[in-house]
Amino acid sequence: MVSFEAVELPRVSFPVGLALVAGVAIALRLLWRSDPNKPPMLSDVVPYISNTYQYMGNMDRFLARAKEAVKLKNIVGFHLGPKNFFIITGPQNIQALFRTSPHIDFEVFLLIAIESLWRASPEDYAKFKNDKSGRSATPAKGCENQPESKRYWYTLHRVLHKYLETTQYATMLARHYQRFFSEYLEQRPQGEWTEQTIMGLMKYDMAKAAIVASLGTHLFDMHPNLLDMAWPYDEVLVTLLFKPPRWLFRRAARIQDNFHAAISKYFVDANERFDWNGPDADADWEPIFGSRYFRELVKWMKASELSLQTCAGITSTTGIMGLNANSVPVCAWALMELVQDQELLGAVRDEVSTAFTTDPETGKRTLDSQKVLTLPLLQAVYVEVLRMHVSMNITRAATKPLEVEGYTLPAQSILQAPTQISHYNESVWGVEGHPATEFWAYRNIKYVEEKNPETGETKQVPRFEMRGRPTDFFPYGGGIAICPGRHFAKQEIMLSLALIVSKFEIEFLGWEKFDGSPSDRPPKEDSKYAGAAAVPPDRDMRVRWKRIW
């Protein structure tokens, strides 16, 4: 056995040592590039360092470079530190990435989040890391005898699938959201013009309604300023993801500490108050834990014997920010587009009016949430905003050598499919006069003739029809690891827009920075969120609005 401590290395000066390291790195890069059996590599000014630095610090610029590189081939490699990473695109490659395979690991990115964002205890992290049985009901080969209580990925997937993805529970959750959001909107004076910022509306009224619908009112009873802690946490999630040194990112660490501490107090208090044998255990909604979904998630945490530290991390990151970090900016972008285009706003308002029913005796108007989901123009606006403003790198790991585009990628390679590349593919999304880089509400609308059965007259009516395939449009990911909350998110966003445009007259006043000072330009995407999911605007819109009913 060789002891590395016993090997005495020759002493060299720092410049010589640096030159040697650089020389080895350049030689390795040249060896890679000279091999025609290996895919092209993204240029790296300082090998192993430049791309890593840009990937960690300016994802938006990094993805712009990758987008240019994959125009020649549907794959380009780079090194993130010592790791082999590959950006892939193209329908067949992305379809293969989404497919369940023993050679592709779906959990690689989630394990990073479990450690850094959940801040799972070492014991809880090991439970997930060592569970190789998969998410399917049938355990993976070699794990047939693993008890169900130790199948953490599968049992979590089962809870999320049943209580977020099935129509019954997703609709139930959306119904409670609609009730709370309507109540918050109706706190505005009727018939009176007031001013409002769009992001302010979404980050507080919309976010609170989503949290109360899902987690109940008790959380806000304990922490009335919850959202003032949550949104700073959202700002540092990307920074925290790769677990940087605390001493280097003290503010981010402090924000995470404070938010997790607040949620820990809630979690302990709620469990002490709640009667798991009482009638509320199976209720559609109750104030302490809120929805059936969240109660079942809490039951899973308890059954899995997770520490309080881990439970607080799951509640903070998955339970709270998972509800809002994507839907809030998407809804804000959509409303900004509508307010800027009064003709489009009017068309959406007219369409939404068909989803209301009026009680003939009381005159009360009720919005049919299921009909809202079928409105073609509103669907088209929703999809177009998702296409433009979700920037997420779908990530998988190759457990064995994997063939992509005719190249054999080594085991342990990380593969990423960025939405920011596929969602802006001109050959798929471009329309004459409306390039993929601009918002166009009618991109996924097709007009068809419809005949009136009574009069025999025909007219052109809009129909929602996606231009792209699932391998061209994947804002929620794909395969077995697809976002389980996507159905609720869609209902939340579309219901929010429907309620706002129907209840209010809205007029554009101007753009402003988040400190309230005026801005001389409209918003761009806030580049620090690139690659993380929905990218919020870096400016706000100020409007004047009046509640009609």
From TrEMBL:
Residues binding heme, per UniProt: 483
Keywords, sorted A to Z: Heme, Iron, Membrane, Metal-binding, Monooxygenase, Oxidoreductase, Transmembrane, Transmembrane helix
InterPro entries reported for this sequence: CYP450_sterol_14alpha_dmase (IPR050529), Cyt_P450 (IPR001128), Cyt_P450_E_grp-IV (IPR002403), Cyt_P450_sf (IPR036396)
Domain of life assignment: Eukaryota
Disordered as annotated region, ranges: 516-535
GO molecular function terms attached to this record: heme binding; iron ion binding; oxidoreductase activity, acting on paired donors, with incorporation or reduction of molecular oxygen; steroid hydroxylase activity
Protein name (database record): Cytochrome P450
Organismal lineage: Eukaryota, Fungi, Dikarya, Ascomycota, Pezizomycotina
